[in-house]
Amino acid sequence: ISTRFPFGFLRKTRRIPCSREVLVLPSVHPTERFFELLPRLGSELDSYLKGHSHDLYSIRDYQQSDSARHVDWKATARIRQLKVREFTREDEHRLRLVFDPWIPNSHLETLESFEKAVNLCACLAWYFCETGATISFATEGFETLASPAGQILYPILERLALIEPAPAPVTSLDRLLSDLSTKSECFQVIVTHQSQASIPAGAGDSAYFVFMDSL
User: The whole model's pTM is what?
Assistant: First the structure.
């Protein structure tokens, strides 16, 4: 066992004989790829979670489906064109994390990208826990209910520690991907080795895809 806690100046190491099985959880230390992904993910999440709470999101052009009570009369008068206010939703921190274990082959680079994807998924779960989000998690044979991230963080990490690449297509997750265009109850972050061309049209409206071959 080794650690740099609490300040990171020194690494303390100790060898401990262990006669039982120990489950080692994936690393949640943010990687360079995680920091690259986070701003884009945040932007997609913000765009999806426009709604009707009391927090102003933006002012935009009026559309026929808009309610007259959301018209911003000051902005309308200033530019002489109908403008409406958009508001953020109160449940803006609700999302679903999905890990697709399917891999197209067993090449070394594919297996390495799979392990990177496991760690990235663990980082995301940890991050959303720290931000107080309500999340759910799904992978083949395992799914949680939507809960405060702190309540299900360790079950998620334990599942990720045990997950193995699936050389055969995962039927349940294929069905999930095909249904994405109709699922809008929460924003979804999907980590997958599927190709971008295989993602159904409209799926990007309610989901953000992390493709393993880009890791």
Answer: 0.71
